[in-house]
Design brief:
Pfam families: LGT
Structural class: mainly alpha
Largest sheet: 3 strands, antiparallel
Oligomer: single chain
Distance between the termini: 58 Å
Number of helices: 10
Family: Belongs to the Lgt family.
Mean pLDDT: 91
Helix content: 55-70%
Function: Catalyzes the transfer of the diacylglyceryl group from phosphatidylglycerol to the sulfhydryl group of the N-terminal cysteine of a prolipoprotein, the first step in the formation of mature lipoproteins.
Radius of gyration: 20 Å
Enzyme class: transferase
Shape: globular
Low-confidence stretches: 1-7
Strand content: 5-15%
Protein name: Phosphatidylglycerol--prolipoprotein diacylglyceryl transferase
C-alpha cells in the first residue's frame, strides 16, 4: 500500500516520444481545451444560425495568431532574460505564454474576420465566450504539468488542510518548497464561470447581444486580479506593478462601462432572440 503521507515524485511533463520529438502534456492539454471549445462553439453557433464553417475558418486564423501574440506578450515582459537567450524565444513547449496576449490576438483576429464575412462580431463573441473560459480553465492544467503559475511558499500541512488531492500537492513541491496552487484556483474560477454562463445564457431577457461576452470579461478579470496577486511568477513592470493585475482592472472597468452604456440602447436585441 502507498503511504500518501510521504512525498512522491513530480509528474513528468513529457507525455511520450515520437522518435526524437518529445510530446509535452502542456500541448496536449491546450489542444484538448481548443477542440472542446470548438465543438461547443459550433453547437451554439448552429442555434444562432451561424454557419459552422465560420468557426473552423476563424480557428485556422486565430489559433496561430493567438499563440504568437501570447508568446510575444510573454517575451516582451521577460525581455531581460530572452535578450540573453534568443534561441529560447520559440520554445513555447516549455511554457511561457500569456493568456491575455492570446485573448487580445484572438479578438483582433475576430474583428477582421467578422468584417470580412459580414457577420456580427458581438454575436460571435457571445457564442465563443463560454467555450473560451472553459478552455482557459482546462489550459491551466498545462501549467500544473510544467510546475508553473504558482504562488508563495507554503507547507504540505496547509495544502492538506484545504482538502487538495495528494497528487496535486505532490506536484506543488517545486524547488524543495511547497507552493500555493494558484493554477488550481484560477482553473476552478474559470470553470465556475463557464458553468454560470451556460446556465444563464439562454434565460429569457437576461442578456442582450454582446453581454455574454462582457460578462465573461468581467468574471475572468475579477478572478484573475485577485489570483494574480497571490502568484510569485507574475510578469512585472518594475518591481511592484503586476501586468496581469493592471490589465484585469482595466478590462473589468471597460467591460462594465460598455455594458451599462449599451444597455441604454432600446433597439439592442436580446441574446435569445437575435
Amino acid at each position: 500500500m502507498i503511504n500518501l503521507s510521504l512525498p512522491l515524485l513530480a509528474l513528468n511533463p513529457i507525455a511520450f516520444n515520437l522518435g526524437p520529438i518529445q510530446v509535452h502534456w502542456y500541448g496536449i492539454i491546450i489542444a484538448t481545451g481548443v477542440v472542446l471549445a470548438l465543438i461547443l462553439s459550433v453547437h451554439e453557433g448552429q442555434r444562432r444560425g451561424i454557419n459552422e464553417d465560420y468557426f473552423y475558418d476563424y480557428l485556422l486564423w486565430a489559433l496561430p495568431i493567438a499563440v504568437i501574440c501570447a508568446r510575444f506578450y510573454y517575451v516582451i515582459f521577460q525581455w531581460g532574460y530572452y535578450s540573453q537567450h534568443p534561441a529560447e524565444i520559440i520554445a513555447i513547449w516549455d511554457g511561457g505564454i500569456a493568456i491575455y496576449g492570446a485573448i487580445l490576438g484572438g479578438i483582433l483576429t475576430l474583428y477582421f474576420f467578422c468584417r470580412a464575412r459580414r457577420i456580427s462580431m458581438w454575436t460571435m463573441m457571445d457564442v465563443i465566450s463560454p467555450a473560451l473560459i472553459m478552455a482557459q480553465g482546462i489550459g491551466r492544467w498545462g501549467n500544473f504539468m510544467n510546475q508553473e503559475a504558482f504562488g508563495a511558499i507554503t507547507s504540505r500541512a496547509a495544502l492538506i488542510s484545504q482538502h487538495i488531492p495528494m497528487w496535486i500537492i505532490n506536484q506543488m513541491d517545486i524547488g524543495n518548497h511547497y507552493r500555493v496552487p494558484t493554477f488550481l484556483y484560477e482553473s476552478l474560477w474559470d470553470l465556475s464561470g463557464f458553468v454560470l454562463l451556460m446556465l444563464l445564457r439562454h434565460r429569457h431577457h437576461l442578456f442582450k447581444r454582446g453581454e455574454v461576452f462582457l460578462t465573461y470579461v468581467m468574471w475572468y478579470s475579477a478572478g484573475r486580479f485577485f489570483i494574480e496577486g497571490m502568484r510569485t511568477d507574475s510578469l512585472m513592470i518594475g518591481n511592484t506593478l503586476r501586468v496581469s493585475q493592471m490589465l484585469s482592472l482595466i478590462f473589468f472597468i471597460v467591460a462594465l462601462i460598455t455594458l451599462i452604456v449599451r444597455r441604454r440602447r432600446a433597439n439592442l436585441p436580446w441574446y435569445v432572440n437575435q
